[in-house]
UniProtKB/TrEMBL annotation:
Keywords: Cell membrane, Membrane, Transmembrane, Transmembrane helix. Coiled coil: none annotated. This is Protein DedA. The keyword Cell membrane applies. InterPro entries: DedA, DedA-like, VTT_dom. It comes from Pseudomonas fluorescens. The gene is dedA. Its main location: membrane. It is a multi-pass membrane protein. Pfam families: VTT_dom. Signal peptide: none annotated. GO terms for cellular component: plasma membrane.
Length: 218
């Protein structure tokens, strides 16, 4: 099978099975690294975290991995990633986003997370777990805002348990249901689209409210 990013996303189950077969226990380190990078490095918000967790749970159900070890390691990866991202935000702050033309440190992503943070406060760290892109920037913004670390850590742990635990468990119990297994590629796309819905709704609401404000000011 030829490798390309889209193929990887749509056939995570195939690739993960191959990785388990070829690398054995090293698969835990690979998955740990992917989840850590998605949550801990601001430059990698595009990694397929949601679908990867679900597929990993399904593979574990088939005997490819130990579900308890898998869940524990991925929770640790997400918490360490969040903390790393928080430290980067607290120390480097908005200097990383000073270039408005940057293709990597995009200010529109940062602004969306700022808006979400202003609306939900500390809960952003927990809620953002279920929002692609925003979950990568939420710890960074919490660091920029200098949220006390113990408070940040509490929200991070709660979000991690719900996100990793929830998706791995769903994958473990439902990923190998015949209908789901047969249509796994469509399910991966559905998971990605559903995870984007709250962000899209929020974007429309902000634009709509902005338009109303302009009309009222006339």
């Amino acid at each position: 099978m030829d490798f390309n990013p889209l193929d990887l996303i749509l056939h995570l189950d195939v690739y993960l099975d191959l990785l388990v077969t070829n690398y054995g226990p090293w698969i835990y380190a690979i998955l740990f690294l992917v989840i850590f990078c998605e949550t801990g490095l601001v430059v990698m918000p595009f990694l397929p975290g949601d679908s990867l967790l679900f597929i990993a749970g399904a593979v574990a159900a088939g005997g490819g991995m130990d579900p308890v070890l898998l869940g524990g390691l991925l929770m640790l990866a997400a918490i360490l990633g969040d903390s790393t991202n928080y430290v980067i935000g607290r120390t480097a702050g908005e200097k990383l986003f000073s270039n408005p033309n940057s293709k990597i440190f995009r200010r529109d992503y940062l602004q969306k997370t700022h808006d979400f943070y202003d609306k939900h406060g500390g809960k952003t760290v927990t809620l953002a777990r279920f929002l692609p892109i925003i979950r990568t920037f939420a710890p960074f913004v919490a660091g920029v805002a200098r949220m006390p670390y113990p408070r940040f850590f509490g929200f991070s742990v709660l979000g991690t348990i719900l996100w990793v635990g929830g998706l791995v468990t769903l994958g473990y119990f439902f990923g190998n249901v015949p209908f789901i297994k047969k249509n796994l590629s469509l399910l991966v796309v559905a998971i990605i689209l559903l995870s984007l819905v709250p962000m899209i709704i929020g974007l429309f609401r902000s634009r709509f409210s902005g338009s109303n404000s302009k009309v009222e000011s006339r």
